Amino acid sequence: MILYYVPGACSLADHIALIEARASFSLVRIERAELTPDGSGFLAKRTSDGRDFSPRGFVPALQLDDGTVLTENIAILAYIARHDDALLPADGMPRWRTLEALSFMTTELHGNFRPFFYPDATPAEKDRARQKLTRHLATLDAQLGEHPFLLGAQMTIADAYLFVMLRWATLHGIAVPERLTAYAARLTQVPSVARALAAEGLAS
């Protein structure tokens, strides 16, 4: 498999999951990336050797061994975790809670970061987004409670995604609750997270 990524983008979650799943993969860093005109995400035009890499032009994109390209974080994360019941339980309520958490983060966290990546966003738009993000982070902080990971004792693909959202919050000056701050610090010590950060040039 090949993961096309932009350092620090939401593709970092997939990078972490690939390592955690002990998958065989290679990386292609997208060098010429810019925001889409509407600020909704990264528009990565071509790979560094000039090839088109994604039918939708976004990262992440995961090229499978048969050449098929898969896009969209929830789909990619679920695909990566398909043979790892720890990352995504095979059935039962733990599976649905993991997918529920991913959907919540995609809609309520990821979506609300848009003004911070949109050059023409107004201060009022950023303030509204900050208020929403603060509220939703408080919800996740309550869900985390005293667990080591978001959904309990095991790391899942939801943790990989939440780690990226917390990095973005810190980078953009959004207050992160105390338990989530400690949680993010713990995750940096998880080998898969540390390796992904180092590979993307993000290790502190």
Q: What does it look like?
A:
It is a single chain. The protein is α+β, with helices and mostly antiparallel strands and 204 residues long. It folds into 2 domains: 2-84, Glutaredoxin (3-Layer(aba) Sandwich), CATH 3.40.30; 92-190, Up-down Bundle (Glutathione S-transferase Yfyf (Class Pi), Chain A, domain 2), CATH 1.20.1050.10. It has 8 helices and 6 strands; from the N terminus they run βαβββββααααααα. It has helices spanning 11-20, 73-80, 93-109, 114-117, 123-144, 157-171, 178-187, 191-199, and strands at residues 2-5, 26-29, 33-35, 42-44, 61-63, 69-71. A 4-stranded mixed β-sheet has the order 2-1-5-6, covered by helices on one side. It has a two-stranded antiparallel ribbon with strand order 3-4. Strand 1, helix 1 (11-20) and strand 2 form a beta-alpha-beta unit. The longest helix is centred in the middle third of the chain and has 22 residues, at 123-144. The mean pLDDT is 88.
Q: Topology of this protein?
A:
Blueprint: E1 2-5, H1 11-20, E2 26-29, E3 33-35, E4 42-44, E5 61-63, E6 69-71, H2 73-80, H3 93-109, H4 114-117, H5 123-144, H6 157-171, H7 178-187, H8 191-199
Parallel strand pairs: 1-2
Antiparallel strand pairs: 1-5, 3-4, 5-6
